[in-house]
Amino acid sequence: WHRNGYWLHIAVVKPALEKVQGDAVAAVDPGEVHALTLTDGREALVISGRHLRSLHRLRNKTLRKFQKAISRTQKGSNCRKKLLQSKYRFLNWIGAQISHTEHAVTKMAAAWCLERGVKKVYIGDPQGVREQDCGRHHNQRMSQWTFGRLRDLLEYKLKRHGITLEKIEE
Predict the structure, then answer these.
(1) pLDDT at position 33, please?
(2) Which candidate, 90, 72, 75, 67, places its Cα nearest to that of 5?
(3) pLDDT digit string (tens) for 89-144?
(4) What is the CATH architecture assignment of 24-169?
(5) Distance from C-alpha of 8 to C-alpha of 118, rounded to nearest angstrom
(6) Chain-centre distance of CA 25, in angstroms?
(7) Which of the listed residues 13, 16, 24, 83 has the most CB atoms within 10 Å of its CB?
(8) d(CA 158, CA 6)
């Protein structure tokens, strides 16, 4: 049971994944508009994060509408219960959409590294960017920027192929 629904988890044994044969090095720059930008010195890959950004914006706008409607109802009323059910159903749906998009972005990056025989990946840490106060809307975008989650997913997917991910200062 998770939030408002039952989940079924199934464990499946998969064959071993192929390991990287090369010794190339790549760099990754996480961004808010471009989720990940990768380069190995010769070629580059830019993965757009606009869909992820739009999902966060949709979540914010819809939650605002739900919260406004919920605040106008009385505690314990049927209307409030229905609104809360709808809100949590929406949160489950949007959470699944965001998670899927994050996995798709990191899968593309891992596949790119595997194709080019990259053995080590350096990723920049944009922590200082989030701490700047640049206005209400920008601050909200920065607080919802999921670069840590993308880094964790990328590290997990690269490690399966024997590729190491090292965090460095930008």
Answers:
(1) 83
(2) 90
(3) 999 999 999 999 999 999 999 999 999 999 999 998 877 766 777 788 777 777 77
(4) 2-Layer Sandwich (3.30)
(5) 36
(6) 24
(7) 83
(8) 31
